[in-house]
Amino acid sequence: MLTYYKEIVIFAKKLLHNKEYALDVVQEAYLRMIQAEKTMEIKHPKAYLYKTARNIIIDDFRKSKEHHNTPYEEGSLCIPKEEEPHAIVMHESQQKHLLKILDTFPKKAKQALVLYLIEGHSKTQIAQRMNATKETTEKLITRGLLKLKEALKEEPL
Predict the structure, then answer these.
(1) Residue 44: helix, strand or coil by DSSP?
(2) CA–CA dist 112, 137 (Å, integer)
(3) What is the dihedral of CA 60, 61, 66, 68, to 10 degrees?
(4) Domain edge (last residue) among 79, 109, 143
């Protein structure tokens, strides 16, 4: 249940610049998620917590009297696109789909592509990790990418 606690606290602290207030927001977000779980299934708890914490911060900001005197700074309540809840969910579902396709590949090709595409290793690092030459690794990745491209034409992300 508390898997994402530290991550959500860091997110809230970035927005609020106040540790105690961030802890309160995260506590409230978890409380709302627990209450929501009684009436519905939450498929993506991490995204739910991010969105709830962000909404709590915005609601509190709107309710406070200080916001009349505080100039709005664009980006102060924004998070990077890749950290937005819908982006996290989309990224996770795309990765699952990609891994499903990669499960049909030979073991070494799958390993090389996962290290290259998902984990972001260089071809040299992959070659060292797989105890293979760089040329062999490049061939595995190139052939795997071509096969993956064909598979994605048939079954897009």
Answers:
(1) coil
(2) 7
(3) -130
(4) 79
Q: What is the pLDDT of residues 6-32, one digit of tens each?
A: 889 988 998 888 889 999 999 999 999
What pLDDT score does 67 carry? 47
Residues 75 and 21 in one domain: yes
User: H-type helices in 69-122, by residue range?
Assistant: 85-102, 107-113
User: What's CA 155's distance to the chain center, in Å?
Assistant: 23
Q: Give residue 107's Cα distance to chain centre.
A: 26
Distance in angstroms (rounded) separating the CA atoms of residues 137 and 126: 7
Domain count, the chain: 2
The encoded tokens of residue 93 equal: 């579902």
Question: What is the mean predicted confidence (pLDDT) over 29-56?
Answer: 91
